[in-house]
Design brief:
The structure holds two protein chains of two kinds. By secondary structure, chain A is an all-alpha fold. In chain A, 70% of the residues lie in helices and 0% in strands. Chain A is built from nine helices and no strands. Classes of the chains: A mainly alpha, B mainly alpha.
Chain lengths: 185, 256
C-alpha cells in the first residue's frame, strides 16, 4: 500500500482505514520490534499505537508527500524514534524494514499529546459547547483537512460559500465562548 | 489594507493548511510578522487544531485498546485451547462429549445472565488511557520521582492498585481524582470509585466530563444500582455524547 492509497482510504472512512492498517501491520511490527528491543509486548504495543497516530496525523496534513518509502517502513521509523526517546536508547543501525526519521518530526506530535496546556484544555471545553454542526465543520476543516467542496457535500450544505460563512460563524462563536474578541483590522 | 474578520479567518486557515504558495505566501508572512490580530488568529486556530488532534489521539488509543482486548486476547486464548485438545487425542471422544455437556450448561447459564449488571460491567469496563501526564518509560531508578509520576507510571503499566496508592496522596486535582476513580473501579472497589465519580459528575466542569459520566454509570452498574445507572446512560444518549456512545446503547438495550 502506498501513502496515496492509505490517504484515499482515510478520506472514505478514516476509522475503518486506521483499524485496518493497525491489524495488518501489528504482527510484523511486533516481530521486528521484539528482535531489536528487549521490551515487553504491552510496552511495544503502546509504542505501536502512538506511532500509528503520528503517521495518521502526518498523512492528514500532507507531510508525507516527499517520502519515497512505504507507510509500513515509515511507521517503523517513527516507532524507533519513540522508543529511543522513551527509553533513552540510541540504536543507529537502520534495517530495510524502517526509515530513518528526524526526531523532531515525531517530537512535534508527541509533545502536544502529552503536555497539557491551559489554552488547549479551554479549547476542548469550548468545542463541546458549540451548537449545531459547528464542531463537525471545524473538525473536518482543521483536523481532517477536508476541502470546502468535500465539507459541503458531507454536511449537505448548499455550496462552498455557505461552508466558508458557516465556518467563520462557528469560529466567532468559539472565540466568544473562550473570551477572545474578533476584530476588524 | 483593511481586512474583515472573515477574511482574516480564511487567510489564516489557508495558511495553516498549506494552501498558500509562492508570492501569496510571502505576502502573508509579511502581514503575519507585523499584525497582532493575524498572529492572535493564527494562535487560536493552531490551538484549535491541536485540541482536535489531542481528542483524536485519546479516541484512537481507546479504539486500539478495545481491539487488543476483543480481538487479540481472545485469539491467543483460542490458539492455546486447540493445542491442548490435540494432546489429549486418546481420550478425545469422552472428553468432547463431557465438554459439550458442560459447555451447553455454561452457555445456558451465561445467556440467561447476560443482562446481569455485573456481567455488563465486566464486558464494558476498560481503563481510560492516560492523557494527563507523560511519564518516562525508562527502566532507570525512580527514587526521585514524585507520587504523581510514580502513580501514572504504575497506571500506564496496568498496575492500578499501586497507581491508586500513589495518586491518593495528590489532593485538589480533579483530573488526578478521575484517574484514581478509574483505578479503584478497575481494582474492584466500586463503592469508593462511585463516591469520587459522583462528586466529579456533579461539578459538570471536569475537562474529561464525558468520560467521568461514562465511568460513573459503570460504577453504578457494578454496584447494581441499575435505575440510577440507566439514568446516567440515557443522559449520555440524550446529550449526543460521542464517547462510548455505541457501548452505552448496547448496555441500555440489555438493561431493558
Amino acid at each position: 500500500m502506498t501513502f496515496s492509497d492509505l490517504k484515499q482510504l482515510l478520506v472514505v472512512d478514516y476509522n475503518k482505514a486506521v483499524i485496518r492498517f493497525y491489524n495488518e501491520n501489528r504482527t510484523s511490527f511486533l516481530t521486528w520490534a521484539m528482535q531489536r528491543y528487549s521490551l515487553d509486548q504491552d510496552g511495544l504495543l503502546d509504542i505501536y499505537q502512538d506511532a500509528i497516530i503520528v503517521l495518521y496525523n502526518m498523512i492528514l496534513e500532507n507531510k508525507v508527500e516527499h517520502i519515497n518509502s512505504s507507510p509500513e517502513a515509515y511507521l517503523f521509523g517513527i516507532a524507533k524514534n519513540l522508543i529511543n526517546k522513551s527509553f533513552k536508547k540510541q540504536i543507529d543501525v537502520v534495517s530495510e524494514a524502517e526509515v530513518s526519521i528526524e526526531l523532531g518530526t515525531t517530537d512535534a506530535y508527541m509533545n502536544e499529546f502529552y503536555k497539557e496546556s491551559h489554552i488547549q484544555t479551554t479549547m476542548e471545553q469550548a468545542l463541546k459547547k458549540l451548537k449545531g454542526n459547528c464542531r463537525e465543520i471545524l473538525e473536518l476543516y482543521y483536523y481532517r483537512q477536508y476541502k470546502m467542496e468535500a465539507i459541503s457535500e458531507k454536511l449537505n450544505l448548499k455550496n462552498t460559500d455557505v461552508v466558508k460563512s458557516r465556518k467563520a460563524q462557528c469560529l466567532k462563536a468559539l472565540k466568544s465562548i473562550i473570551g477572545v474578541k474578533g476584530n476588524i483590522v | 489594507m483593511k481586512y474583515t474578520a472573515v477574511e482574516i479567518t480564511d487567510m489564516v486557515g489557508r495558511y495553516l493548511r498549506g494552501e498558500m504558495l509562492g508570492k501569496q505566501l510571502e505576502e502573508f508572512k509579511e502581514i503575519l510578522g507585523s499584525n497582532k490580530l493575524f498572529q492572535e488568529e493564527l494562535s487560536l486556530q493552531e490551538n484549535l487544531q491541536k485540541a482536535f488532534r489531542k481528542r483524536a489521539h485519546k479516541d484512537l488509543k481507546s479504539t486500539f485498546q478495545s481491539i487488543e482486548k476483543e480481538k487479540y486476547d481472545s485469539e491467543n486464548h483460542l490458539a492455546s485451547q486447540r493445542n491442548d485438545e490435540k494432546n489429549r487425542r486418546p481420550l478425545m471422544l469422552i472428553l468432547v462429549l463431557g465438554f459439550l455437556l458442560i459447555g451447553a450448561t455454561i452457555f445456558y447459564l451465561i445467556s440467561s445472565r447476560s443482562t446481569e449488571p455485573a456481567q455488563l460491567f465486566a464486558e464494558a469496563m476498560s481503563p481510560f488511557p492516560n492523557s494527563y501526564l507523560e511519564v518516562e518509560r525508562s527502566n532507570s531508578s525512580q527514587k526521585n520521582s514524585s507520587n504523581l509520576e510514580k502513580g501514572f507510571l504504575a497506571y500506564d503499566a496496568g498496575k492500578y492498585d499501586k497507581a491508586q496508592q500513589y495518586l491518593v496522596n495528590i489532593t485538589g486535582d480533579k483530573q488526578v481524582d478521575f484517574y484514581r476513580a478509574v483505578c479503584l473501579l478497575q481494582s474492584g472497589d466500586s463503592q469508593s470509585s462511585r463516591s469520587i465519580l459522583s462528586q466529579l459528575y456533579e461539578m459538570k466542569s471536569h475537562p474529561e466530563f464525558e468520560a467521568v459520566r461514562w465511568y460513573y454509570g459503570l460504577s453504578l452498574l457494578s454496584l447494581k444500582e441499575t435505575a440510577k445507572a440507566k439514568e446516567i446512560f440515557q443522559e449520555i444518549i440524550d446529550t449526543q455524547q460521542i464517547y462510548q456512545k455505541s457501548q452505552t446503547i448496547y448496555i441500555l438495550d440489555q438493561l431493558r
